[in-house]
Each structure stands twice: as C-alpha cells, then as structure tokens.
Write a structure and sequence with these properties.
The structure is a single chain. By secondary structure, the chain is of the alpha/beta class. The chain folds into two domains: about 240 residues, D-Maltodextrin-Binding Protein, domain 2; about 110 residues, Periplasmic binding protein-like II (D-Maltodextrin-Binding Protein, domain 2), CATH 3.40.190. The strands form two sheets. The chain has a six-stranded mixed beta sheet. Strands 8-7-9-6-10 form a five-stranded mixed beta sheet, sandwiched between helices. Helix 7 packs across helix 8 and helix 8 packs across helix 17. It is globular, with a radius of gyration of 20 Å. About 50% of the residues are buried.
Length: about 375
C-alpha cells in the first residue's frame, strides 16, 4: 500500500534476505526476523544493525526485504519466508485482519502526513488548493471546494491501497460519492504516472518518487498530505502470539528505533548516505542524499521520543491521531470498497496504547538510549 507499491512492483526479488556481518544466528529461535520494504523510511531499522545497537541490547536481528503488501503475508507464513515483526501501517492491518485475526498493529512511529499528493496539470480545468486559499476562503472551505472539482473526473491511482484511500477521503471532503462521482483508472504507480504524463486522466496519485517526477515534469499539487484525509502511520506489526512471548525483545527493538531517529536528527548527512546506499543496492529507487533530507521530517515525520509520540499520535488532539486513521481505513475498506466482511475493532488488533505504557515503564518518556 501507500508509496510502497511503487518499488514493490518493480522490485523483483521481494523476499531477498539482507545478510550483514553479525546478524546470523545458529539458534534461529533467538533470532528476530524483521521484514522491511525497500524505501527510504522503512530501511531505517537496518541502521541499528550497521551501528551494532541491536547487539548492544543482546538482540540478534535478521532483516528480510519484502514487498509492502507481502509483510502481512510473511507474518502469517509457516515457511522459510516467515517473519516475526515488520514495518507496515494501519491500513494494511485492517485490510488483512479478517484473513488472520492474529495480526496486530503494535506501535506507530512514522507519520506519512505530507507524503501523498493528488497531482493535476497546470493547464487543466482543475484548480489547486492554493487557488481557493487565495480567494480568502478558510482552509476547511478551500479543501471542500478543491475536492468538489473531482465530480465526474478521472483519477489514475492504484486500487485497494492507501493511495486510492486518499482519493476516497478527498471525495468525502468534497461531499462526493466516491463510487459514483469519480472514475478510477487502476494502474500500478509507475504505469499510472506514465499514463498521466502522456495525457490520460484528470488527476493522479502515486508515491513519493512519482510525485517528485510529476513535479519535475511540470505537474502541480491539487491536494497534499492530511488535506486528503488522516495520515498513514507506519509502525511495527507482529502477531499476538509473538507479542505475548517476546515483550522484552520488542521493547528493545523500539528502544533501538528511537535511538536511530535521534541519531539521524543529529547526523543527517551521514545517515542519508547509509540509507540511500542500502536502498539503491536493493531497489531501483535511484534516490539521492538530497531526496532523503527533503523527506526527513518534511514529507513524513519521525517523533524522537515517547513525549512526541503521545502528542502527535496518541492524543485525541494530535495532528496525526491514530483513531482518525483507523476509522478512515475501516470506512474505505468496508463501506466504500467492500473488501472486508466487517469493520475491525481497535481492541482486536491495535496494541499501541498498552505497548506505549510498557515502553514508558521500561525506559521513561525520553527513551534513555544509553540505558540497557
């Protein structure tokens, strides 16, 4: 889902195992199999392996690179492709919960709050949000007027992903019926962008690379980020069984995550070089250090401790309140797309609140990264 589908379409070896020195263990029961997808944000946990921070915590971690939609499948697998934890988001958990109720969203820590952009042509008959803001409208009314322009328009996106979910949310903000008032052309992100750039469709939404390319080709942003709807929240997903048996390991995994975020904040150039090297070795992204630095705490945000997590994600007044995304995902998959049998109750699959309290007890609000 979300921007992840871009590379997962072109990323052929979706089950490639990354083997770094020191990560293998003869005692597989002690090894944490960690599934990540080849993107500039979901590769961040590998930085902890390169720095030796998992080893400092007494953890043995083995990373597997998987397509974004394969993370949930690998959690359910009993084969060699099985993983214990992975990075995914709320939409993915809700979309797959009916197939495996054992899958849970453990902890959210990366908000994709400015990542998506609905792109339009500068010479087209659809005006961007900025046009209506310049007319003196409030932001809420300007978003409504902008979204209303999608009536009887064609949008190119990837169906049953949180890219299309953003279009559905925009339709709702414009008081439109997503299934009746908007025509969707379903293509994978790269094919969709190519079609849009050659004249198909009235608007397009893909991932960050497509958004960047479209902008370089002269396309403009109609609506972006949370103006399209509640932001996707990336985080750790696992199973109920693994959580119950491995709480201490999971607490340490999150400690290392926050250590990584705090390190990147202080060493952005060095961290960008490491992540981009890993990304370009394992995908066709061809990202640059400048791309990474542009995305970091701009297109998406990384709270550096539990205080920021609570303020931004857990609090009902937070800019990326988790329940808003949860409800929006249920609305999209159940009421609009009708691909799940019933809405997923948060108490069935959302473990973040209880795990957040466990993190606070273990490490304190600031996550003291020097404490073992």
């Amino acid at each position: 889902m979300k921007k992840r589908n871009i590379i997962s379409i072109i990323f052929i070896v979706t089950s490639l195992l990354i083997s770094f020195a020191g990560c293998e263990s003869k005692d597989e029961s002690e090894t944490i199999r960690f599934g990540v997808s080849p993107f500039q944000d979901t590769f961040l946990p590998i930085l902890g392996l390169e720095k030796g921070w998992y080893a400092e915590e007494g953890l043995k971690v083995e990373f597997k690179v998987l397509g974004w939609t394969e993370i949930q499948e690998a959690l359910s697998s009993i084969s060699g492709n099985r993983i214990d934890i992975g990075i995914n988001n709320i939409s993915s958990v809700i979309a797959t919960h009916h197939n495996n109720p054992d899958l849970v969203y453990l902890y959210g820590f990366n908000t994709f709050d400015n990542g998506f952009a609905l792109m339009i042509r500068p010479e087209g008959n659809i005006k961007p949000l900025s046009y209506f803001l310049e007319q003196g409208l409030s932001r809420e009314e300007a978003i409504k007027m902008t979204a209303k322009q999608l009536l009887n328009k064609t949008v190119i996106t990837t169906s049953n992903t949180d890219m299309e979910q953003g279009v559905a949310a925009a339709a709702n903000r414009g008081n439109l019926d997503f299934t009746k008032d908007i025509k969707i052309i379903n293509l994978n992100p790269d094919e969709g962008l190519a079609a849009f750039l050659t004249g198909s469709g009235d608007a397009y939404i893909g991932g960050i690379p497509q958004r960047t390319r479209a902008g370089k080709e002269g396309m403009i942003e109609m609506l972006t980020g949370v103006d399209l709807g509640p932001a996707p929240i990336n985080g750790i997903v696992t199973t109920k069984q693994y959580y119950e048996k491995n709480k201490e390991k999971l607490l340490k995994i999150l400690k290392v995550w926050f250590r990584i975020v705090q390190y990147v904040n202080k060493n952005l150039d060095e961290s960008a070089s490491t992540i981009i090297r890993l990304l370009n070795e394992n995908s066709s992204a061809n990202f640059t250090n400048d791309d990474f630095k542009k995305f970091w705490n701009n297109y998406e945000h990384y709270p550096q401790d539990l205080i920021e997590i609570e303020k931004n994600i857990i609090s009902e007044t937070g800019s990326n309140y988790w329940k808003a995304r949860w409800d929006d995902s249920n609305e999209y998959f159940y009421n609009i797309k009708k691909v799940i049998p019933k809405p997923v109750e948060s108490q069935e699959a959302f473990y973040m609140l209880q795990f957040h309290n466990e993190l606070r007890v273990k490490y304190g609000d600031n996550i003291n990264i020097t404490k073992k």
